[in-house]
Each structure stands twice: as C-alpha cells, then as structure tokens.
Amino acid sequence: MSVYSHNFAYTDGERPAPSAVREALAPRFSVVPAAKSRTLRRTWLDTFDWRLYRAGLTLECVADRGPAELVLSGTAGERITATANGTRWPVLADGLPRGPLRDRLKGLTSVRALLPAAKAASTVSEFRVRNTDDKTVAWLTVDLLHPARPSTEEPPARLSLTAVRGYQAQTDRIAQCLAAQPGMFRGAPPPLDAVLATVGHAPGEYSNKVDVELSPTMPARMALAAVLLRLLDTLEANVAGTIRDIDTEFLHDLRVSVRRTRTALKLGASLLPDGLAAEYRPEFKWLGDLTTPTRDLDVHLLGFADGAAELTSADPADLEPFHDFLTQRRVTEQRRLARALRSARFTTLTATWRAALTGLTPPRRGPDAAHAAAKIIGRADRRVLTLGGAISADSPPEKLHDLRKRCKELRYALEFFASLHDLPAHRRAVRELKGLQDCLGTYQDCQVQQQEIRVVAAELLASGSVPATALLAMGDLASHVGQRERRARSEFSSRFAAFASRQAQERFEVLTASTHR
Amino acid sequence: MKIVATYNIKGGVGKTAAAVNLSYLAAKDGQRVLLADLDPQAAATFLFRVRPRVKGGGTALIRGNRDLDKAIKGTDFDGLDLLPADFTFRNLDLILDTTKKPTQRLARLLRPLRASYDLVFLDCPPGISLLSEAVLHAADLVLAPIIPTTLSVRTLDQLTEFIGGLDGHRPALLAFYSMIDRRKRLHKEIAERLPAERDDVAATAIPALSMVERMAVERAPVAAFAPRSAAARGYADLWAEVRDRLS
User: Fold this and answer.
1) Over the stretch A395-408, which tens digit does the pLDDT of each residue have?
2) Residue B69 near chain A (CB below 8 Å)
3) Chain A contact for B112, CB < 8 A?
4) Mind giving me the DSSP string for B142-181?
5) pLDDT value at B149 more than 90
6) How far apart are CA B127 and CA B143, in angstroms?
7) How many CB pairs under 8 A join A and B?
8) N or C: which terminus of chain A carries fewer CB neighbours within 10 A?
9) What's the pLDDT tens digit per position in A104-114?
C-alpha cells in the first residue's frame, strides 16, 4: 500500500509548530508525542555541478547516535542506503564503501567528487494524531532544521502528516484544519532547498554554461559585458576547488571560462571601450597558459586506464613507473598553479576586470546585440571555412591545431549569443561543428600525449632507474596513441566536408538571420 | 504468508486475548501481520480502538464485491493491521452458504494478501459451523486455547476429530492452556501433564491474571502496556512456540 501523506511548511515564529497543530485540531483530534525528539546531523552531498540533483537524486549523510548512514533517494521513490564508514568529504564515488550505492553513483558522478552542499542539524519530533476513540489515525512528524552556516533566517518547520492505513478521510480532514492555520503552507520544499534558501542559494545554481539572457535590441556592448561577467563568475566559482584540487573538473571549468573570455575579448574587442580588450588579453593569456600543463596531465591520467587496457605486447602493470612519473609531475604543476591562483597578480586581475565590466555603460552609438552576434558568428564561421578548406593531406599538424582553436572560437561565439537564437536551430547548427571539434580534439590530445611519452621516456632513461619493461610498454602505448591520432587525421576531411556542406552552412545562416527579426 | 487461526468450539477461553497479543508480538518481531476479527462480538476490534464497521458488511467481503484490502485498518502499532469485525459477521455462515465452494472461500479471499503480509491471524467465533470449516481450510495452524478442567482432554479430542474429518487441506493443531489459576493444584497438574504427553499441546500456559482482563480498559495488547508483566511473558513464550511451529 502506498503512503498517503500531506506536507506543510510552518513559518509562524510566535507559536511552536506542535502548539499550533494542537490548537488547530482540538477538540476532534488530540496530538500526543510518540517518542523522544531526535537530533540528526545531516550533510547533503552532490558534485559541484549538481549532477545528482539534475538526475532527480538527493544524497545525504545522516548521523544519529549510531554510525553515519548514506541515503540516496530519488524523486521516483528510489532509495539506497549504506553505512558511511567514516568517509571524508570530498570524495570520488570510487572512495565510497563498496555496494549498490557506490555502483549507482559511479556512473552519475564520473570524474566529479562528492562534496558537502549544505549541512544542518535536524530535530525530528514524532506525534500521534488521535481521534475521539483515542485511536491513532495519523502520524505527524515535525522537522526543525538548523543550518550549520549561520544566517538571519531559519528555515520553516517541516510538517509531514501520514495517514494510518484506512484513515485517509480523517487525515484529509486533519490536513484541512492545518492548512487553515496562519503561517501554515501546503507543500514544504525539500530540506536541502530550505537550508540553502537561508543563505540565498538554491540547488542546481552552478552551471558552466554561458546562460545569460540577452535581448536582440540591447546594446552589443552591454550584451558582451553580461557574457563576460557570467564567465568571470564561473571562473571565480572554480578557483577554490582548483586550489584545493578537489577534482579535475574545477580546473577544466576554470580553463574553459578563461578560453571563452579570451575569445570574447578577441571577437568582440571593437564593441568594448578603446584599449580595454588590449589591456586584459595578455593577462588572460597568462592565466590560460598557467592552466595548460596541469590540464594536459589530467587528460593523460584520466585516459590512462583505457590506454593501458589497449596494450598488445606489454602488461598494463609495466606502465606503473610512467603513471607514477605523470602523477608526480602533476603534483608539481598543480602546486605551481595553486600558487599562481593565490598570487596578487591573479586577484588583481579578477578584481579589476570585474570593476571594469560593471562600470561599462552603453555607447552613444553602436550595434545592437543581434547585429553584433550575426557579424561575430559569421566572421568566425568564415575563418573556419577558409582555414579548413586550405588543409590537405600534407598539411602540418600546426594547421589542424590552428583550425581547432578557430572552431572553438566559433563554438564559443554561438554559446555567447545562444539566448538570441531559436534553441532547436542552435542545436542543429552546432551538430556538425561538434563532430569536427571532436575529431580535431582527439588529434591534438594524441599529439600532446605522444610528445609527453617521448619526453618522459627520455627523462626516465636519463634517471637510470627505469626498468626496460616500462620503456617497452610506453612504446606500445605510444603506438596505440599514434593509431588513434592517424584515425582522427583520416576522419578529418569527411568531418570538415560535413561542416562546410551547403546544408550545414545554411543552418548557420538561418540561425544568424533569426536574430534580425 | 502463514495463517494462524485462534479457534475453539467453546467460547470465553481466551482466543481473542491470544490473537491480539500474539499478532502484536509477531509484528514486534518484524513480521508484517494482519489480524482478521471474524467474531461479530468484535472484541479484537474494540481492543485496537477501531470502529467495528466494514463498508458493505460481511456480504460484500465474502462475495468479493469489496476488496479485503480496502477494509483493512492500521493499528497503533508498526507492522500490525486489522480487518475489523462488523455486526453483519453474525451471518457469515449464511453468506458463505450462498457462495460456490464455501469452505474454500476464505482461503481464496486471503490469497491476494500474500504480497503484503507474512502472517495472518484469524480470530474466530466459537462453535462448529460453515465458517469454522472455512477457517480451518484456510489455516496453516490452529491455535486452540483450552481451559484446565478434566473435560479439557475431551475438548481437545473433539477438535482433533473435527480437523481430522476435514476434506482436503488439514491444518496443524497446537493447543495451549489458558486461564490457569496457579493457586489451584488441579490446574497445575493438568497444565503440566498434558504437554508432556501430547505433541499438540504447547508447554506454555497462560495464567488467569487481572492484567489480561485489564486489556479491555487499556484497549491495547498486554505486551504493549505492561511488557514486563507475567501475562506478557506468558504470551511471549507462547509466541516463541508458535513461531517454531510455523518455521
């Protein structure tokens, strides 16, 4: 039998919830405590980009007097529990105790760590609601949340009224009486939402997407400023996680916002006041370059197990010295990066950049957002067509790397102005570009990795402490990376042809034309 | 799902007290339990503070016009539900008689509850009737309270004979002494002799205690309002024996 319940939020600060309930229900129903109140320590966990929340799931670590328990619950009634076994946060799903909960979370969280999204103490009191026969007809739970982060606001008391089997009609009457009470509202928000609301936040609010709402007629300068401010928000949101090295995606998102900022400064320089783009472009290049070594190593290490599994003539275990070397080098590079992100140069950059952006005013004359978007996207598209069209089977890798950068610029430009476009048309326009980017991305990643294997092999050999089996395994690995690289290179012409096709280009024209309405 | 019927040809021997306390103890043990009050006197229903009313009465239930599931009420105790009695249950014999295969009817009506319950207690009215035949047909175990008189062996034999005479399915029988007065030598002797001689008599005897009578005042199982009382301990021992027989 399904559970039949009504939920309420109670916000009257004058009377505690149980008193309000007693007054509302007397004399037809009495409310008596069913057990001693319990206080639970609750920690809600999610990835920084809310992967669980977006999948309709909530993960909680609940500690009573006994050992802490992990509870994963879904909007569709899914519920998996596991003992927390002293798990420390943040942690990758791999670090959770073995079992169905870990298995369920691994695929969802992937490379992202689980970290506390909110903490609160929860005082839960349970009451029986009895009719005039003193028969319990419903159970009432009152949950008072006390957020760990101090705030001026307390979340509303959460009331849950559950019917005893066969007493749904009486429970409905009780619910009606409660709903008529001042300060009582039907439908309490989920506890995580309630706790975050007290500090002005909401679950799911972080996204690495450039989700700004632009209007076609707004001045292009203000549209670009809104995009750049959004990118700065994302960049700053990822600084602490990158410094703490919580997971690889903090750096990824930070790096992408730097790249997008550089693209916006390049493609939209003429829309900004004279000299502003020129002043900040070198600083963002410095920042971008800082992130490259660690990110390249991340890409290599994240794909390491897959690469090792491909070995044909060597044992994956032979690659351990190579893996250790990369890991050690990553530690060094990460430290360097963290130092730079704590430096005065970095903090000055973000502070002055924010001040510059917020101080921007619309120019007396200048294009509107729609026209500027069409022009920027059109120009970026033409640049990709020209560069790509000039690439032949004999072209050096640098030409493809250059094209990859131009493709990224086009993709970013499309993202900046996505809110001006029809969403399905945007998705159609991006499809072939995405295919081309994937091909170029694989090609370049393989090149970087091959270069890294060569450099590391030389260094290991020079150190004199590497076994021959490791070098042989690295050779085997390089050969497989080489195969992947050649496959990507041979795919290029068809990918580019698809992008440059009349149909695909028409999709771009439709997209940019739609902003001129 | 196992079905236990508390039944005796004779009335006033402690059937309802046993059904109420054992169903409570089984639920406390973690089993999902339903107590079906088939007695129109509705004593079990009263003890759980439920109103003795079933929509459509016995006719709707027995003929299947109303799902048994929809008539069930939750008690105040976790894992224990009650099918309340209704005054029309006094006619269950007549109603059964109008159905096809009346002795198999109750078993068939209980079958859909298999997914929801581990254990069903049937608290039956006394006497030999079509209803008692249907109850015995549905039950896995008949739990028969007997009072300590010299005629108790005869009562037990009658019951054994009645069960033995059933066509098809025959439930196991477990009798137990109820309303034992420990101050009476005769009671003590009888309560000790029969369990030693017969497999179908439980070693546990439930004493005649005012605490059992107090159930009507408290309107709850004695094991719930006086868990450390001698009566509660007696029912706990009896439940342990019943659980062993069912496993």
Assistant:
1) 999 999 999 999 99
2) yes
3) no
4) EEEEE-SSTTHHHHHHHHHHHHHT-SS---EEEEEEEEE-
5) no
6) 15
7) 26
8) C
9) 999 999 999 99
Structural domains present in chain A: 5-197 (2.40.320.10), 220-514 (1.40.20.10)
Whether pTM > 0.90 for this model: the answer is: no
**In whole angstroms, how far apart are CA A352 and each of A186, A238, A283, A290, A344?**
47, 18, 11, 19, 12
> Taking CA atoms, what residue in A is nearest to B218?
A134
* A283: nearest Cα among A228, A345, A236, A232: A345
The verdict on B93 touching A (C-beta cutoff 8 Å) is no
Tokens (6 digits) for B69? 């599931």
To the nearest whole angstrom, how far is the Cα of B199 from the nearest Cα of chain A?
Answer: 39
- Report yes or no for ipTM above 0.95: no
Domain range spanning residue B185?
A: 2-246
Q: Which residues of chain B have a CB within 8 Å of the CB of A165? A: 72-74, 81
A165 → closest Cβ in B49, B81, B219: B81
In chain A, which residues have their Cβ closer than 8 Å to the Cβ of B49?
A: 133-135
Q: CA B54, B60, B66: angle at the middle one, nearest 5?
A: 80
| CATH code where residue B135 lies | 3.40.50.300
From B110's Cα to the closest Cα of chain A, the distance in A is: 16
A294 vs B240: CA distance, rounded Å: 66
Domains contained in chain B, number: 1
Gap between the Cα atoms of A406 and A395, Å rounded: 16
Q: Which residues are bridge partners to A251 per DSSP?
A: none
